[in-house]
Each structure stands twice: as structure tokens, then as C-alpha cells.
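Q: A reviewer asked whether we had any structural model of the full assembly, not just the individual parts. We don't, so I'm hoping you can provide one. Inputs are below.
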Amino acid sequence: MRINRRQFLRGAGSAALLASGHVLAWVPRRARAAAPANPVVVLVQLSGGNDALNTVIPVNNAAAQRSLYDFYRPSLRVAASALSGTLLGTDPGNGTSLAFHPVMTGLKTLFDGGHVAVLNGVGIPGAPLSHQGALEAWWAGDPAGFAGTGWLGRFTDAEFTAADSPSLALGARPAGAFASLNGNALAAPALADFALPDDPLHPDLAARAAAWSALYGADATDAPLVARIRRAGADVLARAPLFETVAFSGWGSALEGASSSLHSDLLQIASLIRYDELFPDAASGIALYHAVQPGYDTHARQGAAEPEGRHPMLLSQLSDALAKFMADLAAVGVENRVLVLVYSEFGRRARECGSGDTAGTDHGAAGTVLALGGAVVGGLYGALPDLGALDANGNPPVTVDFRRVYATVIDRFLGADHNDFLPGAPFSLLGFLPAA
Amino acid sequence: MAATDILGSADAAHLLRRAGFGASARELASFADLTRGDAVELLLGKKTRRSRPPAGKGGAAALAKMQVWWLKQMQSPKWRLHEKIALFWHAHFATPWSVVPNPAQLARQNGVFRELGLGAFRTLLYEITRDAAMLEFRDGVRSGPADPNESFARALLEQYALGPRDLAGMPNYVEADVVAFARGLTGFQLGPKDLAGRVELALFDGGTKQVFVGNAAEAVGNLGIEDGSGHELPPERSLLDLLLAHRDSDARPTVARLIAKKLWEWLAYPEPALALVDALADAFVASGYQTRALVSAILLRDEFWSPAARSSTPRTPVDFALASLRALGAKSSLAALPAALARMGMPLFDPPAVEGFDRGEEWLSAGLLQRRLEFAQALAAGRSSKTYALAPKKLFDPKAIDPAALVAGLLAALDVVPSAASLEVLVDYVAGGLGLDPKEFAERTLRGAVALALSLPEYQVH
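A: Here is a predicted structure for the entire assembly that you could use as a starting point for your response.
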């Protein structure tokens, strides 16, 4: 059944239509053997620029990386002796043994389970040092910057129609990575309170809801700006019944009760994925999610090893939230069709600035990307940037073009062809997802 | 069209929405007879506004007090344009409470936006450079000669003064300029109760720095910044003057273009033509970078009054809420408004991202639009000035029973023209309540009409 949005909104009720399966689960057009049916990609952005060097830390002194690390980070260094519990193995590039920051115990356990890929040295060719410049490149999948569509938005343009809502960003702002020509990227700060309030003294919500739906039906006479607003409103009203139906708590999620905003965002995502799994006929149809963990722009007061430091606190929340999210996915039985990709606009400067408690780091180049999921072949990938060969700005240099990560996800998880979506393609794929 | 043209009601409404936060019918009537020039002069005034929010002891209550205070200032007929410009600078320099939870510091910064917002941009930039909240936010107080912190320098170049690229897409500076600026901005110190920093010579990097190689603003020497404490620093040239001397790849003044374009977009519409930006930038430079002259130039441009400017840009949440309260004559303590604004994406004093609040169509993502409908419902249901006191009987002609006439009166008050289909929906909705007893009709249907009118897609733009 394919009905247009106006009919849809003017129909007997959005909820009834949604419940009757208006939004069908989808199968990649060019399904490949390795790609799962109904794949879901969850992007987690560490906003501000995560200090990769204190996330995945050199432990031994192969290629002098540990002594260089100690030299550049007199205040911020994490002692090698503190890393014995979070060892990851040996860097495929220079043979340095590496460990997660000691607070990242949840991720370490997952890593040992074999389904976490740690991709070191990932970044943008040219390494823009401004937040906006770097973010726009990550959104677009193009070092030249953002020109209106995101790397996954172009994918949704090819695989979905304008009437679908294939992507959802948790937050006030739409995710640049999902920006599509179809204009169907949904953004919402919180889903559990999506219901509109009634007038408590003179209830009238049903009549007004009907009027809202009519007001936000497409109108051919609209100017383009108003047309886009009408579209956004239609998304609100179409999704509201669904979001009122989904249980966003009380289903035993490991994420419940935690206080960080990332926990809360991942809880909402897990709840929607669970709902889609339990009620395929009424599924949301959302295939792409985006969540942001803010706070990584640690120019000062970054903190080193102590768990209450600013950066360790962020990493601890990240590790805990991801571990609980993956536990939720496993409990629901969808871990093989959900891929989590954790990225940040850039890593940070090798040499710390300031000293003692106030020490921090300036904007850098190469970062670490994490890929998690049942389909992921865990391990260390890429190459740790050589601390003995920093770039002109004193940053660990990029060893892996970020578009190789995207290409791998598109080809091997979404079952599409990255040549269709990434400028500058083809790119050589990475091994963290298995070939067909 | 000229500055001597009489406004009329529609132009008065446009001006007071953009150069203020909306208008009541009475205000519109009083502005309608003015010429453009007189109206703009009236809004600008001649005086400088010196006032800052009350700085409470701290915590959420102190923040709320500051927020409500500011919203009240925005409602002031006399100072509306001054507050609109203060809000522009707040969005521009975007210093968040969540990073700097210090009421006294943020109150001082807010006072700077008010006092210097329409004054000399050079002075504003200087006061923000040594502003306590900014020094804390961008780590300026943690930046010494051994290891200059790049946070403020980078923001100054990228966001506050130049922008990463010029209008032709060419980079305005290189990484070495960030480092040189960071060195030249070292040494700021804050005493425990200071609201503005001083440069401590012993902590200032007095070495030779080179900036903007190949640009008209190229300079070498002991570059730095005046310290404001009376005794002059050794710097041979001030970095702030070098910013103003910077020319982009078209050999145009980079700062003037950036501020002219951004302020135009704040007051008029997005993506102005290059010739328009340059005309405004020229006026800005010719005035010695007086923001008052730039604002005046913007408001007197024919393009500001053109059809292209009408319904061209999304209302910010503050515009949306305050214009609605004013047009509907709703009384409010404003106590509930800061939280509603935060839900709509505009927490005053706490911009959610380093680049500030949302802009343009970012305001109207589905999730934020839902919160506008939520506000529309709350305002329409408001029966107490503790939240919002809306009196349907005052808003609608008590003798009218024709749904089309009732709706027309409401839309006129809100100054919104919906599509024919939207209008039909509103009229049908009101007609659906005609069978109710008069009180219920007023309390349910007329309030419902208000909620729906505020929810119109056409009302989300101005």
C-alpha cells in the first residue's frame, strides 16, 4: 500500500495507519550475502574532538611510542601500570601494545567478546582543525565539506521515498550525516514526551489533533520554506502516535536509570529498535540513528587517569552506555543487524597545554573510530599514528582516510555500493566487517 | 521607496517584528503614521542602555531570575531594538551557563552586549576578549607563555571576527595565525571577584609574532592586546586592530563583511546578495565600525522592506513566544517562559553549542516544531498570569458568531495570512464549536482557535 502524505494525514487517524503497517521494514535493494536484512546503523558523535591518544594508549615502548607519549603528556599521561586491565593487543602498524583508558572497562569486556573494532589513525585528509570544518567533512563524507547532503542521506535518497522517515537524530538538530534531498531526516530531542498536552480544564485534544493533521497536510500553494515546515510538522504528527505507543522504559533495559544524556539517547534508540523487532507490522522503519555525547572539547582541565576527571568521566559514560546498549541489543536478539559507529570530529594535539590540574589539549587530526555489533570482526585496525612523526601542527597524523570506514559500512553492512554515495570513490575497504 | 515613505500598518508590523519582538494593535497604529526614517530613528534612539541582569547567588534559581529579567527587557517598547541586538551578540559570542555557571560573570557579559551592542564593534570585541565569562569559557585564564591555549584565539578567528573562509570560499587565515593569536592573548588573569581580566606581563608571551602573512593585515612584532589596567603593554600593535585591517581574497574588509551578513540575516533574510553585503559592510567601515550605523543601514535598505523579506525566515523561539504574547494581549509573569524557550531550543544564557543557538531552518526540525505546538497549547490554555493569562473574550468580538469573521479577527491580530486550505481548517474548527453554550464555546473553541493559529506553518516564519 502506498498512499501519499496528504491522504495519510487526512485519513481516519495516523495511529491506525501506522499500526496497520504503513511503514514497512525494508530490504537493501542490492542485498549482498554479508549484509543483514533490516540493517540499522547507530552513529554516536563524541562532540568537541575526542582525545584519541588518551582513549587508546600506548603501553610498551615499541617504536618509542610510550616514551614519546610520556614526553608529550607530562600531566595528562596515564601510567602504563594502570593499563594492565584494559589491554587490547598490538597495533598492526608499528607493533606498540595498546590499551583502552582504564575507566573503559565495559568496552574492554565487549572487545574481549570479539565484536568491537578499534580503528586507529582515522581522519580527514587535510585535517581541518575547526569544529565546523571537520564536522561538515564527516557529515558529507567528503573532505571538501558539506554541500547539502550527508553520506547516509544520499543513501536514504536512493533507498527510501520522501514519504518515509528512515533516519532519526536524537537532539534538537537534524544530523548532517542524514541530510537528504528528500528532506526526510527526522530530529527530535526526546521521544518519550512527544505527546502534546491537552487543556486540562476544557479538554479538546482530539478535535485539535484532527485540525493539526489537516493544517500540516501538503499544500501545493506553499512557498518552499513553508512547505518544508509543513513537512516537518507532518513528521511530528505522523510519528507522535508511534512514539506514544513505544515503551521507552520499563522493559528491562540495562540503560534505564543512568543519568548521562548518552544513556538516555541510547535507551530511546534501543526502545525503538526493540519495538520494531517485536511489532514488525507496525515498525517505525527507522534504519539510521544519531546520538551525540557532548563535552570533548578539552582545551583545559581535561583530567588524566583519575575517574572523576573530565575526559575520564566522559569515556566512562561512553563505555558504560555502549556496553549496556549492546547488552540490550543482545537481549532483544538484534545484535547482528545493528552496527554502532562512534566518531569524533578530530583527535587532539599530542603535546598538552597548561600543566597540572588545568592541562588540556588543542584540536588535533587523527582520531579513533569504534565499530560495535554482532557483525563486527573485533580487533585493532588502521595504524596508530607515529608520535615520532607529527604533522606540521604537532598532531598525530591521519593514517586511515575516514571514507574507507564509510565505504566499508555502505558495502558490507548496508548492502549498497559506496561508489554511488562517496565522492572520490572507490576506497579500499577495511576488514572490520566481513566480505561477502 | 525612501526613508520619507509613510509606513502603514503592514510595514510597521514587519519592522516591529524584526527590529523588536512583535507589537500590539495599539503600537502598530502609533507606528503606522511614521516615516521609515523616523521609525528607525525612534527604535534606535540616541541613548546607550546601561543595564545588566541581577546576579543571584548561583544555581538554577539565579539563572531563571536572569532569564526572566532579560525577557522583560525585550518586552520594553523603548528598548526593543537594543535588546534584539543584545540577543544577536549573545548568540554570536555564545557563552553557556552550562560551562560558566557564574551569574555575576554572565550578567556582566550580558551588560556588555546591551551597553556596547550598538556601539563601536572594536570596543565590544575588546570587552569580550577580557570578559570574565569568556576567559573562563575559552580558557583564556589558563594560557601562559610556555603553552598558549588556542581555544579563544581559534574562536576569535573562526567565529567572532573573520570566519574560516571568505565569501569566495578562500581561507581567511592559516593555522600559524591561530598559534600567533594564542601567544598574543596569553597572560590574562582574573581576581576572585573580577568581571574583566587584566594581562599580567610576567605571564604574557612578549616574543615576536607574525600574523596574516601576505594579507593587508600582515604584521610582525610583539603583537598582543592592550590590558585595560591603565599602564600600556609593550605590544607594538593590537591584534584586534589587525583583525579589522584584515582583507579577504576580494580585498574587502573581512570583519565588516562577516558582521554585516550575519546581522542582515538576523534582522532581514538569509543569503543576501553580495552587492548588498558589500554596501552594508562599506557603511559599517565608513562609520568606524559603529554597529548603530550598520543596523540603521540595514533597516533603511529597500531590500529590508521588499516582498522577498516578508515571511522569509523562521521566527526564533523568543520571537515566536514574545510576538504571540504581545499580539494576543496575554499577560504573563514570564516565569514559565524560560523553560518553554529551552524546550523550543533557545535556553537564554545557555546556548547549546559552541557556535551558538540554532539558526534559520534549524529552528524548525520536527522535534522542535512539536515543542512549538506544545507552547501554543499552553498559551491558549493559560488562565493565570503566573503562566500566561489569555482572555478569549477580549480577543474576539463578543457579538460575532460568524466563524469566518472570528478567525479573520484572530489572524489579523497575529498578522498571519494562511493558505486557503489552512484557513478552511481553522474556520471549520470554529464552526464545529457553534453548538456549545457560550462559555464553553469561548473556553474550548476560541482558545482552541488560538492554539491552532499559533501552530500554523505560516506563523512559524516572519
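A: Points you may want to mention in the reply: Chain A is about 30% helix and 15% strand. Chain A touches chain B through 62 residues (CB under 8 Å).
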